[in-house]
Here is the input.
Amino acid sequence: MIRNKFKNSFQRLLSSKSSQWEPAKGFDSKIKVFNSIVKEQVPLVLKNEQRFATFYTCGPTVYDSSHIGHASCYMKLDIIQRILKDYFQIDLITAMNITDIDDKIIKRSEEKGISWSEISRKYENEFWDDLDKLNIRKPDIRIRVTEHILKIVSFIEKLVNDGHAYVGTDQSVYFKVSSYPNYGKLQNIVLDNKIVPHKSSSADFALWKAKKQPNEPCWSSPWGEGRPGWHIECSSLASHLFGDTIDFHAGGLDLRFPHHENEDAQSCAFHCKPQWINNWLHIGQLLIKGETEKMSKSLKNTISIDEMLEKYSPDTFRMACVLSNYRNTMEYGDEMMETAKFTNSKFNAFKITCEDYLNGNARSNNQENVDPEQILKKFQENKDQIDECLRCDFDTAKVMTVLSELTKSTSSILKYNFKNQSSYQSSYVDVIGPIYKYTEKMFETFGFREKSSIVSQDDNLVNLVEDLLKLRMDLRAEAISTKNKQLFKVCDSLRDSLKKNGVNIKDYSDQSSWSFNKK
Here is the structure.
């Protein structure tokens, strides 16, 4: 009687229109995040002024190698998490599940003739290695499904006892969608509720899959041997870690339905509350340019992470993700990647020029039209614009546009006087220094690995380049002193030859600097 009364009041609460989504109560962070339910940006509200937040991400099903479609999702989430942690100084606790038992894993196990556990561990380890290659931070908490079966069984038991789930005629357990009036929060759904074999309605989905084959991996439960369904895994593990309220839940846009929809329904039913997740983050998919389908092993249209890295650097791929709004579809192709590569090289050239300026290798020509105060004023305006971009749903693409404007305006100072080398040239270190440090800091915040003009390379190669550069500088000094055109040609030829082999040289009035080309 008490349970039925409670259940009825819970359903009345859910059926109210306002229960689709309610702003969280707490501390307004002054950040806005796109809300997948109301389809607009809403304030990010944290529990308290200590700026603590929880962040759960749906992890991979480890039955095969990851491809760049997976990589783009985790890369964009890494960028968002870095912004929250490093820019906004939010104490973010991140977690990710590993689905290490699934139909696909069992099928691959049968194909390879090795155990399902060997399959899952092999591809899980490969997944973590891929994250390292791409400089994607690992989650604070990593949790495997098969290590928490008892918790999942307990979660399902409560749903059965509360009338939200039932045992089908095939001894599997199904969630009763009709028991949850708010089903369809994340995506508009028309339920036909027609009767199908083994369950009450076609909309109902499996929480526990009964064992079908003699050698099928299985665990004990009150309903017989079997294994968890996909959706219940994330609900029970996320609830186990973070309780009945989670600040962020993230995954690819393709997970919005049915995975996230089903997660939300069964979790709200379990916790007896209308809202489990305060902010859903859905990442746009990566498509091959000219195709309309997402990358999929079944469609045989995937590009492996290693294949991509043979041609482009991790920072080039990261820049491609930064230049795309995280909710938008990306079209992978040479055009996109070359744009990202060019953008990286442009900013890298700016940083090299700043470094040379700050190291005293070059000084600017004190032109009358250069006003340091105006540039510093513009710098502050750019910083304010960038802050606003990041506060409006992590708009990294607009940030890069503003950073481009900043470097362009700063370059008016960085014009070198090659003609009058002996004259005094004014120093604008107090202008260049802060802008250089800010630009570096923003690139670090977005997770770019390369922080200096000379990237890590084999010591012998670096020494060889340094020796060649010294010889060229001596020749160039002699050419300048004697106005020897032939020596200038030799210097130019050596510079061009080095460039073809991945080494860029930049000449100033009496100095030169160099850097390795990046993919």
Residues 2-18+51-283 form a domain with the Rossmann fold fold (CATH 3.40.50.620). The chain has 15 helices and 15 strands.
